[in-house]
Structure formats: C-alpha cells, structure tokens
Design a protein that fits this description.
Blueprint lengths: L1 E5 L8 E5 L9 E10 L2 H7 L16 E9 L11 E5 L8 E5 L3 E3 L6 H5 L2 H14 L7 E4 L5 H12 L3 E6 L4 H6 L4 E4 L5 H8 L5 E6 L6 H7 E9 L14 H5 L3 E4 L7 H20 L7 E6 L3 H9 L6 E5 L3
Helix pairs in contact: 3-4, 6-7
The chain binds NADP nicotinamide-adenine-dinucleotide phosphate.
C-alpha cells in the first residue's frame, strides 16, 4: 500500500509518499481503508525521532483516522465491512490502510464528512479526559483553557460549555474570534497582557476551578495564582519548556490545590477503550445535532504532508489540520 514515510528523522522535508506493507487485522481489530487522517504535535516529534511509537504500534505516523471497514479480524462483533468508522490509533494513520482496535472505533455520524470525523478523536478524547476524568469539572465551575485555539483547546471549549461551565481561554489575538464563537466567555491575548492579571480581573479575584495547561514551566507559578481553593491543574504538554524559575509551593497547601498530568498515547488499551466509550456516550449525539463541531483549520492532500507539518510547527493553525488520503 502507499504510505507517508519518514526518510531520516528530521524536518518536514523527510516526509515522502512511498510503499509500506499493508497491515493485517489481528483478533478484535478492524482493517480500515483510510479516507482521512489528522495531524498531532506528536507526529511532528515522532518525525524528528523524539517520540518513538509505543511497543507493538505501527512505526508509521498518524494517531487518528476516518475510513471504511475493509475487513474485520476474528472476534469483531460491532462493525462489518462497509461501515464508516473513525477513532484513535497507536500509529499508522498516514497510510492507505490502517488497523484499529474495534473498541477504539466509533461510527461516523451521517452529517459529518470523513475529514471532519478524522479531526475528532485525539483532541476530543484528550480534552474529555482532562476535563472530566482528571479535572472533575462540575456544572457552574470556571475553567481556564490555555492555547484555546489549539486542536485540544477548541475541543475543550466546546465540551466544557456543554457541561455547563464558564470558559476563559488564552490565545493569539487573531484566534480569539473562533474561540468566542465556539462558546468561550472570555479570551485573553496572552502575548500582550499578563494572563494571571486578566483572569483575576475577569473573575473579580476569585480565580478559576480548573486549568487545562499545555505550556508548563513558564506558566506554572501564575497558574497556581489563578486557581481558587480546591482548584485543579491538569498539565498536558510543555510547549513553553519544563523548568520553573521560582515557586512558593505553600500556595498548594494553603489553597488545597491538586496538580496532575497525563499523556493519552501511553495509556493502556482498556483505559483508551473506556474513554472512547464515555466520549461516545457524551458526545456522538451532540455531533449529530451540531452542538459539538469538529474545528478544521485546513485540509491538505496527503502528498503535501510536509507543508501541513510546517503549518503546525509555525503555530498557524486554529483547530485541526487534516490530511486527505488519496489513491
Ligand atoms: N497529554 C496528552 O495526552 C496530549 C494529547 C494531545 C495533544 N497534546 C499536546 O497538547 C498540545 C496541543 O496540541 P494540539 O494538537 O491541540 O496543538 P495545536 O493545534 O498545534 O496548537 C498549539 C497552539 O498552542 C499555542 N502555543 C504554542 N506554543 C506556545 C507557547 N510557548 N506559549 C503559549 N502558547 C503556545 C499556539 O497557539 P497561539 O497562536 O494561540 O499561541 C499553537 O497554535 C501539544 O503540545 C500536544 O503535543 C497532549
């Protein structure tokens, strides 16, 4: 089959269309003819040789797909050849064919295109896990979503609003309109103002109950100041670096703060399957009624994967970058 291969670990120019063996579905796996896949930061790191795939996963890039079931492995009971499915993969999405664990597949809603469906799994599962499982967000609470216009951020805004929370985001100014249209109550231009001062002003010094953070080191101290008593901080990435310059940890005690972090890709199959089931129960109907929307920044022909990676690495996207897999 055709697949996007990484010639040598390095820059986007290393991505090239080539030939790779077609995968075989093992028991409880579906072989899917891929129509679309979507980019994740993990792909850009894996391309550079900085993020090896988990043991047993395809070495090809691509953590999510939408496509049509071509064959079902032994023991599969939920889907049959011809069904349209989308979902999370441990790798292998940048290819004509991919295998997906049946428990990780969801049916593509009638009203969504394959490109839209492919843009959902990684960011909505990550945001759902962060808000609900780790952040224990409650109706009426306030959540601060950093990088609100990122793929995960745009999913988090919508999910938090659907759960009845108030949402504050940080993002580049030109990305505010999209965040506000998705339901954010307040957008902060973090490049031209202190997000801490803006959050405290907006909340009349009360702070927020939950923060979803991707920036880490440089935001850590200000994040603690933005949290109210019993607040939770969920860390999902370290886009700004891992080091904290100076910190008074007594705030954690005084406000009874809880700090946690997670990566979705390293979670067990059972964890990912349960998360998929819960997201499906919460969100699939809402996608059908358009209460939740896939947020697509751009769609590239997969032969232009290098340009798509450059676009992401330049922080130019608002929402997801999709690769359309062509014959
Ligand atoms: N832990 C997990 O399970 C998990 C799962 C999925 C993704 N992630 C991680 O979560 C992050 C977001 O993923 P994504 O796919 O949603 O990203 P994305 O769509 O590429 O968006 C990232 C955005 O973050 C902002 N940003 C980048 N560097 C920044 C910095 N130093 N300070 C402040 N803002 C910065 C930029 O938006 P502005 O223009 O607004 O600054 C950028 O467009 C990535 O690091 C990804 O690896 C983690």
């Amino acid at each position: 089959m055709k697949a996007i291969l990484v010639n040598t670990p390095g820059g986007p120019e290393q991505l090239q269309l080539g030939e790779y063996p077609k995968p075989e579905p093992k028991p409880h796996e579906l072989l899917v003819k891929v129509h679309a896949t979507a980019l994740n930061r993990a792909d850009t790191l894996q391309r550079q040789g900085k993020y090896p795939p988990p043991a047993g996963a395809s070495p090809l890039l691509g953590l999510e797909v939408a496509g049509v079931v071509e064959a079902a492995g032994e023991g599969c009971s939920r889907y049959k050849p011809g069904d349209k499915v989308f979902g999370l993969l441990p790798g292998g999405g940048y290819a004509e064919y991919a295998v997906i664990d049946e428990a990780m597949a969801m049916p593509v809603p009638e009203n969504l295109s394959m490109e839209e469906a492919a843009s959902i799994p990684e960011v909505f599962l990550t945001a759902f896990q962060a808000l609900v499982w780790l952040g224990r967000l409650q109706t009426g609470e306030r959540v601060l979503v950093h990088a609100g216009a990122s793929g995960v951020g745009t999913a988090a805004i919508q999910l938090a609003k659907a759960m009845g929370a108030a949402v504050v985001v940080t993002a580049s100014k030109e990305k505010h309109q999209v965040c506000l249209e998705l339901g954010a109550d307040k957008a902060i231009d973090y490049k031209n103002a202190s997000f801490k001062e803006e959050v405290l002003r907006y909340t009349e010094n009360e702070g927020v109950d939950l923060i979803i953070d991707f920036i880490a080191g440089p935001y850590f101290a200000d994040n603690l100041d933005c949290l109210r008593t019993d607040g939770r901080l969920v860390m999902l990435a370290s886009l700004g670096g891992g080091k904290v310059e100076s910190l008074d940890v007594r705030k954690i005690l005084a406000k009874r703060l809880q700090i946690t972090g997670s990566t979705l890709r390293t979670r067990s199959r059972n964890y990912q399957a349960k998360l998929t089931q819960e997201l499906r129960d919460f969100a699939l109907e809402k996608f059908k009624t358009c209460q939740l929307k896939p947020v697509i920044d751009s769609v590239y022909n997969w032969q232009e994967a290098a340009a798509a990676h450059r676009h992401m690495e330049a922080n130019k996207n608002t929402g997801k970058i999709v690769l359309k897999v062509m014959k």
